[in-house]
């Protein structure tokens, strides 16, 4: 299929973003399109072929990617649009992750929309404190969301306007200490047993078998798997840190069968249209497996990572070793697993037993 034989435009169909595909009527061009993209659909009303609007397809078709925050920018008064653009540029220059960039832009735009025509750079520390108080008292924002908002606004004043580090001193709301949600080994086995698709099962086995974040699983490349050393290279994880984790022996034969069946070229788990498999797809796989297994815990796929750490701790692994495997910056984060592991308290007897 030659891309130059087709033209592509962005649009909507049935309230979903799509890529419209136009070409002179030619049965060969149509067959080439549907052969390369079997999920291409024909719209009877629009009299045109279309595919979902995915970044990987935009890249393949040479369609310019949307700039992050363009929809938010339209909601901001012209007096503060430059501030939003400057923040976006600075985040890009500092190579912040897409998730952090998205969150900072969203939180900063909320402030700019409320300000209307008042220039954001003229805000005083007192006015900023009033804004954060409004977020807590009127909008009932959670501690996590408020902390994200403070971080975004501090970034603007300190990294864009180059104000002093302590330009404003806002008391940080205390985050509640929540315990990690996890599954027992029996429940993990049930989840895996109820995942019959080989590709789907590999995704879940990688999450649990190496304690990976779902973002790390979908970013794995074929070359990252070293079956000779039985190690896996995790690249550019949270905090832009690389690490190695042991490859479970039990997954090796399944990985080889998967490779022969799917023949991935770059990413180990490739999406329907090429490129990396989506995080959302892996999350859906986990939810469906939980449902089939009859497990009704309110837990997401990150629970497999928590389960990995807890089960290692119960097996007697050193907590500092677990910290390295998980890629935690602080040992305090890893120590949370001691609170959910029964092995740490199983030898303690209640005073009631001695009465």
TrEMBL record:
This is Tyrosine-type recombinase/integrase. Keywords: DNA integration, DNA recombination, DNA-binding. Gene3D superfamilies: 1.10.150.130, Intergrase catalytic core. The keyword Calcium does not apply. Belongs to the 'phage' integrase family. Residues 178-350 form the Tyr recombinase domain. It comes from the Bacteria. Pfam families: Phage_int_SAM_4, Phage_integrase. Signal peptide: none annotated. The keyword DNA-binding applies. The lineage of its organism: Bacteria, Pseudomonadati, Bacteroidota, Flavobacteriia, Flavobacteriales.
């Amino acid at each position: 299929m030659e891309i130059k034989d087709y033209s592509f435009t962005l649009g909507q169909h049935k309230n979903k973003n799509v890529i419209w595909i136009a070409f002179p009527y030619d049965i060969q061009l149509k067959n080439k399109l549907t052969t390369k993209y079997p999920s291409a659909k024909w719209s009877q009303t629009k009299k045109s072929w279309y595919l979902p609007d995915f970044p990987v397809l935009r890249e393949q078709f040479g369609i310019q990617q949307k700039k992050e925050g363009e929809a938010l920018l339209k909601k901001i008064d012209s007096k503060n649009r430059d501030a939003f653009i400057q923040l976006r540029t600075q985040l890009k220059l500092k190579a912040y992750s897409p998730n952090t960039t998205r969150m900072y832009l969203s939180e900063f735009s909320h402030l700019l929309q409320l300000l209307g025509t008042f220039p954001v750079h003229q805000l005083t520390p007192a006015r900023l404190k009033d804004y954060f108080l409004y977020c807590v008292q009127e909008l009932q924002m959670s501690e996590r969301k408020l902390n994200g908002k403070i971080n975004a606004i501090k970034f603007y004043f300190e990294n864009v306007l180059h104000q002093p580090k302590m330009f404003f001193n806002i008391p940080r709301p205390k985050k509640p200490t929540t315990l990690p949600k996890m599954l027992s080994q029996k429940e993990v086995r049930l989840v895996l047993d109820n995942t019959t698709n080989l590709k789907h099962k590999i995704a879940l086995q990688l999450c649990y078998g190496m304690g990976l974040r779902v973002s790390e699983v979908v970013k794995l490349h074929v070359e990252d798997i070293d079956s000779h050393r039985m190690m896996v290279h995790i690249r550019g994880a949270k905090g832009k840190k690389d690490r190695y984790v042991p490859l479970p022996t039990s997954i090796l034969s399944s990985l080889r069968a998967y490779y022969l069946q799917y023949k991935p070229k770059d990413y180990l788990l490739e999406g329907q249209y090429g490129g990396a498999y989506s995080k959302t797809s892996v999350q859906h796989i986990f939810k469906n497996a939980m449902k089939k297994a009859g497990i009704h815990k309110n837990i997401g796929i990150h629970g497999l990572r928590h389960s990995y750490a807890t089960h290692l701790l119960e097996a007697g692994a050193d907590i500092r070793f677990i910290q390295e495997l998980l890629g935690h910056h602080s040992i305090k984060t890893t120590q949370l697993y001691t609170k959910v592991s029964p092995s740490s308290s199983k030898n303690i007897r209640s005073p009631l037993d001695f009465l």
